[in-house]
């Protein structure tokens, strides 16, 4: 996995490419099937960061093996309802962040009651390599992700985030995702509570 010090990319013009204070030239693009293995490695590393200590290790491992494997990423890339974006630092290593949007009506009744804007697109995943936390990579990824979300039919976007994930909640709040409800789910022997957050994408 590549770290925060990277050589200048320059391999591909990108209107939103930026050089961040740490000197990391990060760019964002849509993922392709060729990115599946790198995304899977990044996802296995970052998924546990969003989980509470109560998540049983065996369920965590099963989720990584069956939902974050390369085959799953290849399916997401070709799914017309999904938008998979990745951030890379130009070193040719694995991605340093990724997001996934899914354009569909939420199946969870609590979420369906809570959100106000339809059609809606769920920001299902938002993960950045820990070496890039606080670097601006997440902000760049969010900027591209919101642009991609606005390019779908959706008028609003929602996400669920653990109420204990203070860092992610602060980040989402800064990017306009307001708390609109809660979502409860059972994992192992414990109940988990997610904050449901939503932001408008377009008013017209
Ligand atoms: C969530 C994530 C994408 C945000 O990226 P980031 O680079 O860490 O975000 P930033 O540093 O720009 O912003 C984080 C905010 O939390 C604050 N913060 C940092 N540590 C904190 C903590 N322990 N408690 C509360 N707030 C914290 C920062 O000061 C910053 O606040 P600000 O917006 O007022 O400046 C990234 O941390 C991540 O990938 N985390 C692991 C995976 C995850 O939890 N994903 C979300 C799943 S729903």
Brief write-up:
With 204 residues, the protein is an alpha+beta fold.
Describe this structure in words.
The protein is an alpha+beta fold. The protein has one domain (18-200): Gcn5-related N-acetyltransferase (GNAT) (Aminopeptidase, 3-Layer(aba) Sandwich), CATH 3.40.630.30. Helices cover 29% and strands 29% of the residues. The chain has helices at 36-46, 57-67, 70-78, 109-114, 137-150, 166-174; strands spanning 18-19, 25-30, 82-88, 97-103, 120-128, 156-162, 178-187, 190-200. It has an 8-stranded mixed beta sheet with strand order 1-2-3-4-5-6-8-7, sandwiched between helices. A hairpin with a 5-residue loop joins strand 1 (18-19) and strand 2. The N and C termini lie far apart (42 Å). Residues 1-21 have low confidence and may be disordered. Bound molecules: coenzyme A. Coenzyme A (COA) is lined by residues 46, 49-50, 126-128, 133-134, 138-139, 161, 165-168, 170-171, 174. Residues 46, 49-50, 126-128, 133-134, 138-139, 161, 165-168, 170-171, 174 line the site of coenzyme A.
CATH names the topology as Aminopeptidase
CATH superfamily: Gcn5-related N-acetyltransferase (GNAT)
The helix count comes to 6
- Distance between the amino and carboxyl termini: 42 Å
Essential attributes:
globular, binds coenzyme A, alpha+beta, 29% helix, eight-stranded mixed sheet, Aminopeptidase, 204 residues, disordered N terminus, 8 strands
Topology:
Layout: E1 18-19, E2 25-30, H1 36-46, H2 57-67, H3 70-78, E3 82-88, E4 97-103, H4 109-114, E5 120-128, H5 137-150, E6 156-162, H6 166-174, E7 178-187, E8 190-200
Parallel strand pairs: 5-6
Antiparallel strand pairs: 1-2, 2-3, 3-4, 4-5, 6-8, 7-8
Helix pairs in contact: 1-3
This protein binds coenzyme A (COA).
């Amino acid at each position: 996995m590549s770290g925060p010090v990277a050589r200048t990319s320059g391999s591909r013009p990108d209107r939103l490419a930026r050089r961040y204070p740490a000197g990391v030239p990060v760019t964002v693009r849509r993922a392709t099937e060729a990115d599946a293995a790198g995304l899977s490695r990044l996802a296995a590393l970052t998924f546990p960061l969003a989980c509470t200590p109560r998540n049983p290790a065996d369920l965590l491992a099963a989720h990584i093996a069956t939902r974050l494997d390369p085959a799953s990423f290849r399916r997401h890339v070709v799914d017309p309802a999904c938008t998979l974006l990745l951030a890379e630092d130009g070193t040719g290593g694995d991605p340093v962040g990724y997001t996934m949007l899914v354009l569909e009506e939420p199946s969870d009744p609590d979420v369906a009651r809570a959100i106000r804007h339809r059609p809606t697109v769920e920001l299902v995943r938002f993960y950045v390599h820990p070496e890039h936390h606080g670097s601006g990579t997440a902000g760049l990824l969010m900027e591209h992700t919101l642009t991609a979300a606005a390019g779908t039919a959706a008028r609003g976007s929602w996400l669920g985030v653990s109420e204990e994930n203070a860092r992610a909640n602060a980040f989402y709040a800064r990017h306009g995702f307001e708390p609109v409800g809660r979502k409860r789910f059972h994992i192992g022997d414990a109940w988990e509570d997610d904050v449901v957050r939503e932001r408008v994408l377009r008013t017209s």
